[in-house]
Task: inverse folding
DNA sequence: GTTGAGTCTGTAGTCAGGTACGGAAGTAAG
DNA sequence: CTTACTTCCGTACCTGACTACAGACTCAAC
């Protein structure tokens, strides 16, 4: 079944992905489009499957598809230092995220505990707290929002 | 400056948000649209500002705008148990995320360390590992992707 | 030889959380 | 009174990672 020369549908099944996802990766240049025999159907081999595994592993580590493109350019293994730089940056990002999620956890946990103990249903500590500052950081910087505001 | 009866621009400045963002919240029903004096300009007061603070605090705790809508319906403080349920669910989510980020951290940290020590630049352990399984879980479930695959 | 499933191609839609823009009308300063 | 900035309103666009669908074609089974 995992023989070389399978159709995209078989490839998708083995890789546990939708066909459309593979095509999408092809459009983004992450996966090669094999030559099509005249009036026929494209066939995929093990290297295509390996590519999909690579992509999924990297995604699981938090790399975006753009970053995975970069990684794939280093795939021959001769650019170890660049690959390491990418991984280090990602490690930094991951630690950052963990830190802020822990802050959230702490705050939420406090709220829930205080709420559980509150006897006065008229003043819910959760709702109440949301009106305060909660010690939240400067500004959310996500979705590429720039910091400058004229 | 933080007087009542400010324009949307002033409100935006104080809340450190873009005007467009406030309008967007209005379209989503998160922020009230004050009545417009005939042929005039709408004015906002402290309660609008409080609303924006509420939204931002809740966002910081990881609530989506939809969830914030729900929270806002409980704003009178008489639905403490519902608010607590939402907060508890969110706490669970946050802990889940922390757990999987820690997995990522562990894996990335290992990769980076092994890479640092590798003397053979022909075989970068990072690139190499991405071809293996990395012990990644079943399937990414994000963006509302369903688990079923025909 | 027909049926039904799979493939190919291109384009469009989804979700979240905004951001941008165009044109008309109002407003503040000089 | 003019100039320059805001506001208002609607609509369109953005990112990221897909997902869906239409219409033509190909392929394998019966």
Result:
């Amino acid at each position: 079944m995992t023989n070389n020369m399978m159709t995209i549908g078989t490839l998708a099944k083995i890789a546990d992905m939708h066909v459309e996802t593979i095509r999408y990766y092809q459009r983004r240049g992450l996966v090669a489009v094999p030559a099509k025999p005249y009036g026929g159907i494209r066939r995929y081999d093990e290297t295509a499957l390996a590519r999909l595994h690579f992509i999924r592993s990297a995604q699981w580590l938090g790399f975006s598809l753009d970053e995975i493109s970069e990684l794939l350019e280093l795939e021959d293994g001769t650019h170890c230092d660049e690959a390491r730089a990418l991984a280090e940056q990602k490690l930094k990002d991951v630690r950052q995220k963990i830190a802020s999620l822990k802050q959230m956890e702490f705050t939420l946990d406090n709220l829930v505990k205080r709420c559980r103990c509150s006897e006065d249903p008229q003043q819910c500590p959760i709702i109440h707290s949301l009106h305060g500052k909660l010690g939240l950081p400067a500004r959310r910087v996500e979705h590429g929002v720039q910091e400058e505001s004229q």
